[in-house]
Amino acid sequence: MSGSIIIVRHGRTEFNATGRLQGRIDNPLDEVGLAQAEAVAAYLQPELLPDTLFVCSPLLRARQTATAIVNRVGSSFDIDERWIELDYGSYEGLRQAEVPSDVWREWKNDNDFAAPQGESLNQVQRRVALACDDLAQRLNGRTAVVVSHVSPIKSAVAWALGVDASVGWKTQLSTASITRISVSSTGAALTAFNEVAR
């Protein structure tokens, strides 16, 4: 069990640009996001080998970003539902400033808190940890590229560091950024976070 996992956050959408909670709302990339997807694809291209594994969230913004990457090497990607964004339930579509401050307080202090009809950070953490465990078993010295969203990527970081989901509140993740995790017989290690194509 060895190799590396490169996790890419999708490019920008209109909701990202306007500070709205996007969650499961299936928005496309905006013009900036499409350019970001091409930039991160070009940036990663030298690292992509014929045996690289490609995995993607089912949401359109992730699939558009993943398509830009795999097109560079004539490959394809597998959809894994476990990499989908956190479900914000009844808060989806709201501007972040429209969520009451006491709700944000509870969210930050309780990993089991979920918006009405939504999902908690611990629920995201459990599904992403399973996805990471499965991917680590498949590496066999190879690299995997995963295209996902802010909350699952922060959960993958927690998995690599062996800490709980609350670490996500202490991190900032840009659109189209790269997170790198190495996997070896001794476990996983975070090697880069919020790396931006340049």
Automatic annotation (TrEMBL):
One cellular-component annotation, GO: cytoplasm
SUPFAM superfamilies from the UniProt entry: Phosphoglycerate mutase-like (SSF53254)
InterPro entries: His_Pase_superF_clade-1, His_PPase_superfam, PGM_Phosphatase
Coiled coil regions, renumbered to chain: none
One GO MF term: phosphatase activity
Protein name: Unannotated protein
Organism: freshwater metagenome
The organism's taxonomic lineage, starting at the top: unclassified sequences, metagenomes, ecological metagenomes
